[in-house]
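thought: fold this chain, then report.
action: predict
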Amino acid sequence: MISGVAFRTPLLASPELDSITGARVFLKPETLQRTGSFKFRGAYNRLSRIPDDRKSAGVVAMSSGNHALGVATAAKLLGIRAINLMPKDSPATKRERAAAAGAEVILFDREKDDRVAMARAIAEERGAVVVPPYDDFFIIAGQGTVGREIVEDLNKLNLTPDAVLFPCGGGGLLAGNSLAIHEQAPSTKLYSVEPEGFDDHARSFIAGERLANRKASGSLCDGLLAPTPGELTFSINKQHVTGGLVVSEEEVKRAVAFAFRELKLVVEPSGAAALAALLNRRIDVTGQTVVAVLSGGNVDPGLFARLRTHNQ
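observation:
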């Protein structure tokens, strides 16, 4: 449902990154995707499946920003009214862009408010369809087109990915791509990457059950702060994912600066997590073909100005 609407993003190589890791590394820049994030893929796929008789009541989304942007833009394209619940501490640029795309933005407090309950109450009142950020089959399927493109484009180079790393919040990107990649390349190792203090996936994979984060906020990686792995996404990921990796705030900052300096790309902190894991050798990929997904590029200009020259 998203072919011809979502962009097919390229695979980028970096000799500098190859030298650092000892691997042949490719980056999948979803920063260049419509709305600046992979989230548009799943949002458009989900909204395009809404029956015609339900479209007039609109949709309700919950997001720190990129899902909100994806839903707002997809809704505009499909002629559907969108309501976005967004945290008060989400980047201003994300809130502004969601509103500019025509969505009604309602702010909530990450620490105090139950965003799921708020969304359900609005949906019940208005008859709208709730569009969750990750725990939805059509959302997951839409995100999986990232991995399908990765494998197809590497096949054209007579390559198969040995490992693929994904920034991870609720697990929707990881789940969709676990299914898509393993359908075509079953031996590929898949890894989630999360910021320190918000490593619910890494801990959950070890425990074999969904574990929650101990806090709700406090990281530059605002898009990776889901309270716990999704129920549907974790049921998929625990069967396909090799393990979870964790990076520090300092490492993420350096990754944002590396992407700007070496690749000339604007990457938000959340989107740079997988790159940070490679730069800091969280796994040994020597001699392998590896892909890191740059999941988004929607960063406030002031923050990016500080990060782009970090440690230079």
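thought: worth noting. The first helix runs from residue 15 to 21.
final: tokens above.
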